[in-house]
Each structure stands twice: as C-alpha cells, then as structure tokens.
Amino acid sequence: MADLAKARIPDDDPARQLTVADTDSAAAPHVAVVGDVYTILVSGAQTAGRYCLIDMVVPPGGGPPPHRHDFEEMFTILEGALEFTFRGDVMTIGAGSTVNIPANAPHAFRNASDAPAHLLCMAAPAGLDEFFLRIGDRVPSRGSPPPNLNPAQMGERIKKAKEFAAQFRTELLIP
Asked: Interior CA angle at 68 toward 66 and 72, to 5°?
C-alpha cells in the first residue's frame, strides 16, 4: 500500500483531446464487415492506443466467423440477442448484458434472431478499429445497408482479412 501512495500520476497531456462520439455523425467512419455495419465511435488514435469503441449493427444471420486475438474484447448488447460461441460452448446473450472475451480465447458471435442486434464493442488495446477500416467497405451511415457482395467479392474480402489478420494480432479460425 505504501508504494501506491508514493506513485505519481503523470502530468496531463494537453495534446490529447476530449472525444464526443455520435453514431449518426457523418464524420464517424462507418464500415461494412461480414455483412454487419460498424461505426468507429472512439478510435485508437483518440485514446493513444489504449482502446477503441465500436458501435455494431448485426443483421439476422450476421456476425464474424470464429477467430481469436491477443487483446481483450468486451461487448454490451443494447438491443436484440446474439449467440456467442466461446471455446466451443454456445450461449445466447440478450440486451442489457455485457460479455468480456479474454485475450487469445477462440470465439464468434451470430445473430440467430429475425431482428437486428445492436451492441457496443470495446477492444483494449486498440487496433480492431484499424483492422475493420482496412478490410471493410465504407458505407455512408450507420443505417446504410452493407454492399450486396457476390461470392467472388466475398472471397476477396475473406482473402484480404486473412492477409491483414496477423498485422492486427488476429487469427481467423476458418479454412
């Protein structure tokens, strides 16, 4: 306890600014990934890499394939319900719940309902935001539909995700 009392809080960094995020802002990057639409509310650039916060709208049947990464990921479900697969176990998590995925654990989620799900995703440290921006398709707004990709285009997106995954400390657990 005495060591904590002696710990000094670093000086304020005036170069860092207050961030106010609005999901409907035209300035917020909106990106379609795996058929979902993600809005980067708070980027790693805004938090000095400490975390990022992403608003996610997941349509029926949507969600990422099985994967794992070396950063923590936390989801708060605002509307709807999702089927989470965590280390092979499947559970349905509904609105009002928060789920934390420990670093390195294999997981996926899927909207098994007939209505869109809405959730917030926090990744710490940041990087997931940049990964999505690198592999996804920009869309004009949070309410925009994702592009309707044909099988060849979907294959291109999967190939791109696999190419960038390691750079963003992620492993896709798909063939």
From this structure: 130
The whole-angstrom separation of Cα 92 and Cα 32 is: 24
Domain boundaries, the chain: 25-144+151-172
Q: Alpha helix (H) ranges present in the chain?
A: 2-6, 128-135, 151-165
Token duo for residue 50: 């400490």
**136, two tokens:** 């996804």
Q: Where does residue 60 fall: left (phi above 0), alpha (psi -120 to 50 degrees), or beta otherwise?
A: beta
pTM confidence score: 0.93
CATH number for 25-144+151-172: choose from 3.40.50.150, 2.60.120.10, 1.20.1080.10, 3.40.50.300.
2.60.120.10
Residues β-bridged to residue 14: none
> How does pLDDT run along the chain (175 residues), one tens digit per residue?
556 667 899 999 999 999 999 998 878 999 999 999 999 999 999 999 999 999 999 999 999 999 999 999 999 999 999 999 999 999 999 999 999 999 999 999 999 999 999 999 999 999 999 999 999 999 999 999 999 999 999 999 999 999 999 999 999 999 8
